[in-house]
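Collaborator request, handled under Task 6.
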Amino acid sequence: MRLKAIPIAIAAVLAVAACSQGDRPEIAASSSPPESPAAEPATNGARLALALAAADRAAEAGDRDALEQSLAAIDRLGGKPADDAARSRFETWVAQRPVGAIPFRGRALGPGYRTGTIGAGETKDIEQTFLSGQRASIALSSPNGRTLRLGVTTSKEKPVCRKLAAQSSCNWVPVFTDRHHITVSNPGRAEARYYLVIE
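Structure tokens returned to the collaborator:
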């Protein structure tokens, strides 16, 4: 008789526990972490490409506060114009800055960037030497959100990276010092402006 009563007692205890669990939130649900924010770009070059696109949009919209924030980010990341088009656009942004804004520090080092426009179906070609054993990084952004194709190959036409997006980046460590071939292509039907950051 006592052996039969034990399973009945255990069942009763489990039933009471189940009822009390139903009156409060589940532990797993209450302890789950909040949704994490979107991942930050992995490299300074990728962050710079995003800051350049943001500065371009802010300048077009006449949003001087947003432009100042973007220019501060560009300065903090050490971005340097690498061609005349990029230098001219940067000077236009600086001329739009609010009076009394903090001057740029003018870093001697930092990722270089290029800018330009690319027509529908067109491709821009750039060559750049990367050193053996040193991390290489290329980032591409389009301020008007156009999807662009970024491609990187070695001098022997061996593929290193291929991306298709409005913002993309390629990161690798070359085994040998080599001159790489970089292409930016516009597969869309409308002209696109772009910023290409090379570290």
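The cover message to the collaborator said: "The chain has five helices and nine strands. The chain has a mean pLDDT of 78. Please let us know whether this matches your experimental observations."
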